[in-house]
Amino acid sequence: MEVTNKIAWALLALLHVTPALSAFAPGLVERLYGVSPDGDIGVLLVHRGALFLAVCIAALYAMVDPGSRRLASLILFVSMVGFLLVYVRAGLPAGELRKIAIADLIGLIPLTWVTVNVWR
C-alpha cells in the first residue's frame, strides 16, 4: 500500500507542476490563462504559481515523509476542492477554467486515496 500512496502523492504533485512553473516563467500565464503577466491579474496569476509551487512541494514532501501527510492532504484539499467550489459558484465557465476543473476533478481520485489512508 505504501507504493500506491507514494504514486498518488506523486500524481498530485505532477498535477500542480505546470501552474507552479508560471512563478518562474510568467509567459506561461498568457498561455495557460490568456492573460498578460504584466497587468494586475497577471501578477496575481504569477503569484498563484508560487502558491502552487508550495502545494507541489507539500505533495512531494508527503510522498517521502509520512508524518507530513495529514497536513499535506489538508493543503491539497483546500486548493483543489476550493477551486472547484469557486468554479461552480462562477457558473461553470467554459474555456481554460473548465480544463483546470476537469484536472482537479480527476485529481480528486488520488487525493481521496491519500486522504482516506492518512486519516483512518
Largest sheet: none
Instruction: Specify the helix fraction band.
Output: over 70%
Cα radius of gyration in angstroms: 15 Å
List the quaternary state of the chains.
single chain
Q: Extract low-pLDDT stretches.
A: none
Q: How many distinct beta strands?
A: 0
Number of helices: 5
Counting structural domains, the number is: 1
Describe, in short, the structure shown.
With 120 residues, the protein is mainly alpha-helical.
What does this structure look like?
- With 120 residues, the protein is mainly alpha-helical.
- It has one domain.
- Helices cover 81% and strands 0% of the residues.
- The protein is built from five helices and no strands.
- It has helices at residues 2-21, 27-33, 40-64, 69-89, 96-119.
- α1 (2-21) packs antiparallel against α3 (40-64), α1 (2-21) packs antiparallel against α5 (96-119) and α4 (69-89) packs antiparallel against α5 (96-119).
- The longest helix has 25 residues, at 40-64.
- It is globular and about 45 Å long.
- It starts with a helix and ends with a helix.
- The model has no long low-confidence stretch (mean pLDDT 96).
